[in-house]
Design brief:
Rossmann fold, single chain, alpha/beta, 6-stranded parallel β-sheet
Length: 437
């Protein structure tokens, strides 16, 4: 089977690479020439564990190719996946200009049946817009060429995307025709050998499933952060609360960990887009608006604790940060809590020395040299007045408290992810602040 993937960002590159690993002939397309040339050289634009090795392997085997021109492929492929970006527009909705431009290119150049599959996260109704644009271009050409559209939302966790794609807990596909369904069943059959589920729906439902799933996970995070803040006020231990409610089979324990707020490319953007979709329909998503408000406030919780500890004055205080990316195993800093924390500390006269195993280059790209960057986790704490853990990288979980006490000016710890045992840290001579206590 020959397929094309339009877009070599996070979703497109992971999708194309994993399909090629299963024997599909894949060509990934991107309008950025430098990115395509780098991919041909084995230089990938994102950090994702296991991805680079698979790109090298399948490019060398000839199953994975890269180009800047989609039009040359349309006579030879059966499926075109649209995995281009859908950044937030000025009013919080999803910008569909790239998605519709792909559709326009297809309509102008197809000469035979093609299945066009939207892989990008898009609002309900986008597939029909894609269909209309393609049909409009065919009408201009005076051609009656059959094509199908489908929606195949991705459910990839950054940091574990390759494993998620190769061993999916479900594959959701929205279709309008039996032909499209059969093609997608054939494509995904190698992934279903271990009884993973394919869920076929109508197209609007598939588009909604993606947003609803991310909105639910974001809701759980903000709910738990709200509970953590209240627990702190009433003297409850939020870790015990989390375990107590998570043991209820109706609730479960996933995404019930309090912290300093969610970030990344999906949850913030998708929550905003779903709110905007509802607004356009004259409906207010009151729960999600609260989820968003709680998350915005939660990103400032660590800074508030820092200011309270230093009696409202951090001028010339040296703050060590562990973690810059929005979560471990990625260099993604989109909507990262670290960015809010850095901005507030600098605005109030503090200085920062930060360490992250992967995201330092990305941080430099975003904020330059406004902060100092450490060579390792202990270098970041040298002469620090306080240490703040923002991202729960594994290497931070068992530090040497003796080394930290020697390197830090004052042993004060702010644990933004509750990864440490408070009793152990206090007994080691530290002042400790967590989320929810």
């Amino acid at each position: 089977m020959n397929i094309a993937i339009m877009g070599t960002g996070y979703v497109g590159l992971v999708t194309g690479t994993c399909f090629s690993e299963m024997g599909v002939n894949v060509t990934c397309v991107d309008i950025q020439k430098d990115k395509i040339e780098n991919l041909k050289k084995g230089i990938i634009p994102i950090y994702e564990p296991g991805l680079e090795e698979l790109v090298h392997k399948n490019y060398k085997a000839g199953r994975l190719n890269f180009t800047t021109d989609l039009t040359d492929l349309l006579d030879d492929v059966e499926i075109v996946f649209s995995a281009v970006g859908t950044p937030p527009d000025e009013d919080g909705g999803a910008d569909l200009s790239y998605v519709l431009e792909v559709a326009r290119t297809i309509g102008k150049n197809i000469n035979k049946y093609v299945l066009i599959v939207t892989k990008s996260t898009v609002p309900v109704g986008t597939a029909q817009k894609v269909k209309a644009v393609i049909q409009e271009e065919l009408d201009k050409r005076g051609l009656n060429i059959e094509f199908d559209i489908a929606s195949n939302p991705e459910f990839l966790k950054e940091g574990d995307a390759v494993n998620d794609f190769m061993k999916p807990d479900r594959v959701v596909v929205g279709v309008e025709s039996e032909r499209a369904k059969e093609i997608m069943e054939k494509l995904y059959k190698p992934f279903m050998m271990n009884n993973y589920r394919m869920i076929f729906t109508d197209i609007p439902s598939a588009e909604m499933i993606k947003y609803a799933a991310n909105a639910m996970l974001a809701t759980r995070i903000s709910f738990m952060n709200d509970i953590a803040n209240l627990s702190e006020l009433v003297g409850a231990d939020v870790n015990m609360v989390r375990k107590g409610i998570g043991s209820d089979s109706r609730i479960g324990s996933k995404f019930l960990y309090p912290g300093c707020g969610y970030g990344g490319s999906c949850f913030p953007k998708d929550v905003k887009a779903l709110i905007k979709t509802a607004d356009k329909m004259g409906y207010s998503m009151q729960v999600l608006k609260a989820v968003e408000d709680v998350n915005d406030n939660q990103k400032k919780v660590l800074f508030s604790k820092l200011m309270n500890h230093f009696n409202g004055d951090i001028k010339n205080k040296r703050i060590a940060l562990w973690g810059l990316s929005f979560k471990p195993e990625t260099d993604d800093m989109r909507e990262a809590p670290s960015l809010v924390l850095i901005e507030e500390i600098l605005k109030n006269g503090g200085t920062i020395k930060a360490y992250d195993p992967i995201a330092i280059d990305e941080c430099k790209r975003r904020i330059g040299d406004s902060i100092e960057y450490a060579t390792d986790m202990y270098d970041a704490t040298l002469d620090a007045d306080a240490l703040i853990v923002v991202t729960e990288w594994n290497e931070f979980r068992l530090p040497s408290w003796n080394i930290l006490k020697r390197t830090m000016k004052t042993p004060v710890m702010f644990d933004g992810r509750n990864i440490f045992d408070r009793v152990v840290i206090v007994n080691s001579g530290f002042v400790y602040y967590g989320i929810g206590f």
